[in-house]
Design goal:
Helix content is 38%, strand content 25%. The chain is built from 14 helices and 20 strands. Strand 1 (3-11), helix 1 and strand 2 form a beta-alpha-beta unit. Helix 1 packs parallel to helix 4, helix 1 (15-26) packs parallel to helix 9 and helix 10 packs parallel to helix 14. Bound molecules: flavin-adenine dinucleotide. Residues 11-17, 34-37, 43-48, 128-129, 161-165, 167, 185, 273, 276, 292-293, 297, 300, 303, 305-307, 309 line the site of flavin-adenine dinucleotide.
Length: 421
């Protein structure tokens, strides 16, 4: 069997894989990426966060992405009935990037992968990892190409960025159920000819349809808009018919989308994804590190997936380089802790969204500008800034704030009733 040798084998050519590959390659190591599919390939996850730009920049990808003319994104808007809460990344607490992009992932991921190849990183497409043998830090990975030919890759280290493929957790029984409730998404790309009726193109809009059910609206530069519904599987089961019939019935049921998307042309038949959350106990081991979705993906609200993929790979790549240099690496403090810090901060926000705590905060009239800036930084992906109380105390700060708002509202109501007497 053919055998090749590399310093680092990267599994998956999504954002996690390509960011790690580029940073390690730039440090002078021999890197190879194996990717199961042929690019361009469809994947969902189209709204980025400003914090991802730091990782994309360090990976050397920004000039190539800019050339593609993707839709620039400068904020996020939340809508519930007539109430609107608009976050602009320029008005955030943490200093850093204040814009990013909304991208069709097929084009975006191909741009990152092509940039890796132009740097000299080989990518074996339509090549699937089927087995891995670890011998201490070193490993031998068996891969199979589209013709069914097997070959082996010897590596000093493996970065597993295989996303929903979850290669190492599956091969080594490291999978663990996520504590997130199972949810379903039904989505399509639409030819959004009536776009000017509602949204500015430079932000994602999240519309609360009913408790626990929301809609993403992500305009692209091409005039196409991605629109998806997310909720409990039981919610969707109330709507009979094909995915397209369900999708059109839901567009009609929501006042915000009804007129704009009535009879809209769909670029593809609506797709369904369900129960995407999964995790593992440890994000590293002897001779490997897991990055991106393989570590944990929570939920599409707040668009955290690609950012966590890029940042976890940026962090991991630097530790892999140190490991290859023969330095001691504390993976627990240097990788596991910061990765969990990011995931857990977003987890608190995702839970607060579905519990309704964020409704109370987002849709309050005249919000405190400083609090809004601090929450805006979280929504921009700056979830490692411990000077931000909405990061540092992510698990309690939102509940406390919502309770204060509710109490104040009650007191104001009582006072106005007393005044009228
Ligand atoms: P991926 O992008 O999935 O890349 C992994 C690659 O590994 C794939 O190309 C795959 O083919 C390859 N692979 C898999 N198995 C193997 C194997 N055995 N051998 C070789 N290669 C393999 N995120 C956002 O940031 N913004 C959003 O708006 C957003 N919306 C979402 C909506 C929904 C409904 C869902 C479910 C997710 C959403 N996400 C969003 C999350 C986003 O999809 C992921 O977080 C992101 O794609 C993770 O990137 P990655 O590089 O880790 O994995």
């Amino acid at each position: 069997m053919k055998t090749e040798q590399v310093d680092v084998l990267v599994i998956g050519a999504g954002p996690a894989g390509t960011v790690a590959a580029s940073i390690i390659h730039q440090a002078g190591y021999k890197v190879k990426i194996v990717e199961k599919q042929k690019f361009p390939r469809f994947v969902i996850g189209e709204s980025l966060l400003p914090r991802s730009m730091e990782a994309l920049d360090e990976a050397g990808f920004i000039p190539a992405i800019k050339q593609k003319g993707f839709q620039e994104k400068s904020g996020a808007k939340f809508v519930k009935g007539n109430a609107v809460c608009d976050f602009t990344f320029k008005e955030q607490y943490t200093s850093g990037w204040n814009w990013t992009w909304q991208v069709t992932r097929a084009d975006f991921d191909k741009t990152l992968a092509d940039t890796c190849e132009s740097m000299g990183i080989p990518i074996a497409y339509e090549t699937t990892v089927t087995a891995i043998r670890f011998n201490g830090q070193d490993s031998v990975t068996t891969v199979e190409d589209a013709q069914g030919n097997s070959s082996e890759i010897q590596a000093r280290f493996i970065v597993d960025g295989s996303g929903y493929g979850r290669v190492i957790p599956r091969l080594f029984n490291l999978e663990k159920h996520s504590m997130m409730q199972p949810r379903r998404a039904l989505f399509a790309h639409t030819n959004d000819v009536r776009r000017s009726m509602a949204d500015e193109p430079n932000r994602i809009t999240a519309v609360v349809h009913q408790k626990g059910v929301w809609i993403w609206i992500i305009p692209f530069a091409t005039g196409i808009t991605s629109l998806g519904f997310v909720g409990n599987p039981e919610f969707f089961d109330q709507y009979p018919g094909t995915p397209e019939q369900q999708y059109r019935a839901l567009l009609e049921a929501e006042p915000y989308t009804r007129e704009r998307f009535r009879d809209v042309e769909l670029v593809f038949e609506p797709r369904v994804l369900q129960s995407w959350s999964a995790t593992t106990d440890k994000f590293y081991g002897d001779g490997f590190v897991l990055t991106g979705n393989v570590t944990e993906f929570l939920d599409p609200i707040f668009s955290s997936g690609v950012t966590l993929a890029c940042v976890s790979s940026q962090t991991a790549a630097k530790l892999v380089i140190r490991k290859l240099k023969g330095e001691a690496v504390d993976w627990e403090a240097g990788y596991m802790a910061p990765t969990l810090q990011g995931v857990n901060t977003f987890r608190s926000y995702v839970m607060a969204w579905y519990e309704g705590t964020l409704d109370t905060i987002f849709f309050k009239e005249n919000p405190d500008p400083k609090v809004k800036q601090q929450i805006c930084s979280v929504l921009a992906g700056y979830v490692w800034d411990m000077s931000n109380p909405f990061v540092k105390e992510h698990d309690t700060a939102l509940k406390r704030l919502a309770r204060t708002i509710e109490l104040r509202t009650k007191i104001d109501k009582l006072n106005s009733e007393l005044e009228q007497q």
